[in-house]
Design a protein that fits this description.
By secondary structure, chain A is mostly helical. Chain A has nine helices and no strands. Classes of the chains: A mainly alpha, B alpha/beta. Chains A and B meet through helix 1 and helix 5 of A and helix 2, strand 6 and helix 3 of B.
Chain lengths: 221, 213
């Protein structure tokens, strides 16, 4: 257990010291979401209709931006070799790094999302559901994306490959997260979508470390 | 047989046969030098011993029991130094080492001891991005000496070290061997006293083998 928190603490510390990456992801998220009203016009009705979808799609892309280096950086400087020869199983290493990724990118996105909700003139009750959908959805993004990041270790042009691998797998999270927020706006029940988001997360917590550990082991061969 | 042993090892990387029929035996308290020309597979052999590569033929034994049956126990037993120094530029030397100490469930006191062993105490608070390549090497070697793994696997450990660094490394290795530990090093220079085991590897002609799959 102490190894698990050692990895989480190290990655969070590196992100804080390194500084720029988390900030860049957040700035990308806000800027890209703000671009849409310029493109589609300022009518409140239109913005409210597309708001949840835009916020979530941009959040997906922002989360993916920072994934490319998740394991590649450790692979290039030899850290991954040492992690693989340390007593901690690679599945635990994967889970710890995915959690650190969520803390340094998912959590800032979650905090910024309500601000963007204001831009898109979402109704009051939608904010709570938007936050809940981010809380349940972004950890899944870090876990699923982590598997992609583990698969591209050692590959050239990893970034493009990562998008091809990961974006299709993000679709279920996107659908149910946006459906939940839309449901508030259109007075439909919110609960089913949120339950499915929670179920996706619960499935990702054991499955992704298993797949990611196997991918890392393969990459070291 | 006591100690660390390999029988009939063969290794493939990509589709290239790197070596085959390599065997060795190192008793507790003994050292072995892995020698051979470039491309003979010295690094691959060390990675294989560390469990980073799986042999496609042969097996590794610890005290007579196959390592493959207890990979977790084997990871606890080894400490590996590769070509890369695995330092995070943003962290100080002590923080870099402290992370690996925590990974092994050890406290900060092993970090202090390891820094003293490689004579780099005064670098403790220096960010790793400011280190010279020799200092990075010493830091990585200090990491490898932390805790009490039985087998040190050192791949070209003297690269970049000055005479003082080599002396510190030799002292650390001697202490480890006196305590019943094992040191296996791949190097072009004679690192151990005359009489230590030497495993001389020959370079196979690189050839692509499709039949090995």
């Amino acid at each position: 257990m102490s190894t698990f928190w050692a990895i989480v603490a190290r990655d969070v510390r590196l992100a804080v010291r390194g500084g720029t990456e988390s900030v860049m992801v957040l700035v990308f998220f806000v800027l890209a979401a703000i671009l849409f009203p310029f493109g589609v016009g300022p009518e409140a009705e239109v913005l409210r209709r597309i708001g949840p979808g835009v916020i979530w799609v941009v959040a997906l892309l922002a989360a993916m931006m920072s994934l490319e280096r998740l394991f590649s950086a450790d692979h290039e400087d030899g850290t991954l070799d040492l992690l693989a020869t340390s007593p901690a199983p690679l599945e635990i290493v994967f889970l710890a790094k995915a959690i650190a990724h969520w803390l340094t990118t998912g959590l800032p996105l979650l905090v910024a999302a309500p601000v963007l909700g204001v831009f898109y003139q979402l109704p009051g009750p939608a904010f709570g559901v938007l936050l809940l959908s981010m809380l349940l959805g972004t950890p899944s993004l870090s876990l699923i994306g982590g598997v992609g990041a583990a698969l591209i270790v050692g590959a050239r042009r990893g970034g493009v490959l990562l998008a091809l691998l990961v974006l299709p797998l993000y679709v279920p999270v996107l659908i149910f997260a946006v459906a939940g927020v839309d449901a508030v706006i259109f007075d439909a029940p919110v609960r089913p979508s949120m339950m499915i988001l929670a179920a996706l997360l619960l499935a990702a917590i054991p499955l992704c470390p298993w797949a990611g550990g196997a991918a890392l082991r393969q990459a070291l061969q | 047989m006591n100690g660390f042993e390999g029988q009939g090892l063969a290794c493939v990387r990509g589709a290239r046969l790197v070596f085959k029929q390599v065997g060795f035996h190192v008793a507790p308290g003994a050292a072995m030098l892995v020698a051979g020309p470039n491309g003979a597979g010295k690094s691959s052999l060390l990675r294989l011993m560390a469990g980073l590569l799986q042999p496609i033929g042969g097996e590794l034994l610890w005290n007579g029991a196959p390592v493959a049956q207890d990979p977790d126990g084997h990871r606890r037993r080894i400490s590996y130094v590769g070509h890369l120094d695995a330092l995070k530029p943003a962290l100080s030397v002590a923080e870099n080492l402290g992370f690996w100490a925590r990974m092994d469930g050890q406290g900060p006191e092993v970090v202090t001891a390891a820094l003293a062993r490689l004579r780099i105490e005064r670098l403790a608070d220096v960010p790793a991005r400011l280190l010279s390549s020799g200092q990075r090497r010493r830091t990585n070697l200090a990491r490898a000496t932390m805790g009490s793994p039985a087998i040190w696997l050192l791949d070209e450990p003297t690269v970049g070290l000055d005479t003082d660094g080599i002396a510190a490394l030799e002292q650390a290795m001697a202490a480890h061997l006196d305590g019943g530990g094992i040191v296996i090093a791949a190097s072009h220079v004679q690192m151990f006293e005359a009489g230590a085991h030497q495993l001389v590897m020959e370079a196979l002609k690189p050839e692509l083998r499709d039949d090995i799959w």
